[in-house]
Amino acid sequence: MWRFLSSMKFAILLLVVLALARSAASLVTQGQTYAWYAQRYSERTAALIVALHLDDAFHSWWFMLIAGFLCVNLLCCNVLRLPGLIRRTRSEADPDKAVNGDVSVAGVADPEAVFRKLGMKPVKSGDKLFASKHRAGLWGAWVCHLGIILLLILGFGLGQMTQKQYAVYGVPGQSKPIGDTELALTIDDFRVDLRDDDTVAQYTADITVRDLSEKGMGDVESATISVNAPATLFGMKFYQNSTGWAATVHVMKDGEPLQEEVLCAGEYLRVADKPDLAIYLSAFYPDYVMAPGLGPSTASGALRNPAYLYQVYYQDRVLGMNVLMPEEELTIDEYTVTFTDPQTYTLIQVKADRFTWLALAGGLVTLAGLILALYLQPAKVWAVPEDGTWTMYGQCRKGGALFRERFIRAANGEDKDASS
After folding, report:
1. 47, 79, 84, 399 from 90: Cα distances, Å
2. pLDDT, tens digit, for every residue of 192-237?
3. pTM to 2 decimal places
4. Distance from C-alpha of 377 to C-alpha of 374, rounded to nearest angstrom
5. I need a labelling partner for 330 at 20 to 30 A (CA). Which of 17, 25, 209, 244 fits?
């Protein structure tokens, strides 16, 4: 069982399954509600997504199980191979175990000169001269596995179990709480930088975070964030994630103003004096066109012909949906609904992960293992006296052809540096 759990076949199987799971999860927008999936797909598809935990795939039990088995595979591999690796490392430095070389050259007059050309310093063992170098290269795969264990078990595993993640979105001027924390995020400004061809070059947001707890006493920290340039405030990472459209919804009752609120696409408003009645802003089209057979869409990103796709819910059941133009009104009994002031909102992702530094450590250890495995070639060379001259032997466990070429060149007394 231990041999199977530590085998390469099991590792490859797990990596294939993990890749398929990640691919399946990437096809589903993460972290949405059942109603959101039902509206985007269908009731049956939404039920399947929720049942299989595809709405939060990277925290699901089956994803953790796959990652856990991969950790067990790497851990068993390292534990079972450690004693043999220690013996092998010691053997590489033992002159008595240098018997059969991969390459040999007889009739060498000055073996110490050959050692120098190979960048090695020999020691005398009986009548034999012996040297070894780069034995640390034997540990490359083992150290690389150790780094991945740190990444998966400590960095990823503990991080996923303890991290907190929130999404805050809104328009400039809005302040919103950050999940269940005692922090509040204010969006001071949001800019969309365009290239000469009107494609998006960058999204940038100026934010302020306030600590509303009694301990924090209203402490304030501010930063500017953009895509791939997050900021750390109050020990949490703030990422500029995405953007979309928002609008102001106005609700009037019997001709008198009742309610006004900014809604981002995907948000809903419950009518103040009738909470069973909800107005949902499903989508916004800045340059609205109705393509036959394709439904509503936008011809461009410019505000030329704005239109609002809404849905009306009563007691969580859909009453109706349609596209509303700016000059049009939606009438529901004594209520009148209009949409105005379209503007872009920013979606800011907030993460708190106490084990990020362990993931970084695991990455550095993995990198060190790759360097050991790929750039250090464990080699040993020894010389044995025979009939007034020396016969030299060499052995290299990695890069044998290159080592053989360097060894023969050095043994034959060629001037070209053989130690590189």
Report:
1. 59, 18, 10, 20
2. 888 887 778 899 999 999 998 888 677 899 999 999 999 999 989 9
3. 0.58
4. 8
5. 244
